[in-house]
Amino acid sequence: MAPRKLYGMPLSPNVVRVAAALNEKGLDFEIVPVDLRTGAHKQPEFLALNPFGQIPALQDGDEVLYESRAINRYIATKYTEGPELLPTPSAKLEVWLEVESHHFYPHVSPLVFQLLIKPMLGGAADPVVVDKHAHELARVLDVYETHLAQNKYLAGDAFTLADLNHMSYLFCLSKTPKADLVASRPHVKAWWDDISARPAFQKTVAAIPFPPSA
């Protein structure tokens, strides 16, 4: 079987999301750099992996996948190693997988881009965009705070893919001036402190090549 290859930029939260799932399952893989700054993601070699020209892509033997959440569901379903990330049936799990993609991600993603990624690329954050998404993310995290007051993890008593799919963006958010959006909510903070301390995630973030000032 060919080695697993994860294509993308190691700093990309969507690449980190997949790396976190692979590490939770204890699976060996290598990251193959795809530099968006040079347009490598739009070259024929990468478009053969993902015709939409977006990172990440995962090559797992003869299988080639793209879209980070789909990749993670595939990993969680195929591999029995490590924790059971997709217990079934689980109504809460299915709901919170959707909450992440439809409520959390649309606001945390632009915040991370404006406050972390853009400065790394030599740009400046747009305060209007930051304020808008910080306000909306605060409202979303208020719902999380209420839910996590009654649940240790998003889907109940066990760590699942619903938690894991949040972790890369929560980690990046923690590196920005808006980290207090999590720190100021005690139940959200306790949840984040718990899941971010997992050995597999510690291994994941240790491989992120942040510049010294980040």
Task: Write up what this structure looks like.
This protein is of the alpha+beta class and 214 residues long. The chain has nine helices and four strands; from the N terminus they run βαβαββααααααα. Helix 1 (13-24) packs parallel to helix 3 (68-78), helix 1 packs across helix 6 (161-173) and helix 4 (91-120) packs parallel to helix 6. The mean pLDDT is 94.
Short synopsis of the structure:
By secondary structure, the protein is an alpha+beta fold. It contains 9 helices and 4 strands. Strands 2-1-3-4 form a 4-stranded mixed sheet, with helices on one face.
Rg measurement, Å: 17 Å
Mean pLDDT: 94
| Terminal-residue CA separation | 38 Å
Strand content: 5-15%
Number of helices: 9
Strand order of the largest sheet: 2-1-3-4
Biggest pleated sheet: 4 strands, mixed
| Structural class by helix and strand composition | alpha+beta
Helix content: 40-55%
Total strand segments = 4
Instruction: Give the ordered list of helices and strands.
Output: EHEHEEHHHHHHH
Gross morphology is globular
Question: What topology does this entry show?
Answer:
Elements lengths: L4 E4 L4 H12 L5 E4 L10 H4 L9 E4 L2 E4 L1 H11 L12 H30 L6 H22 L12 H13 L6 H4 L2 H11 L2 H8 L8
Parallel strand pairs: 1-2
Antiparallel strand pairs: 1-3, 3-4
Helix pairs in contact: 1-3, 1-6, 1-9, 4-5, 4-6, 5-8
Features:
single chain; 214 residues; alpha+beta; 9 helices; 4 strands; globular
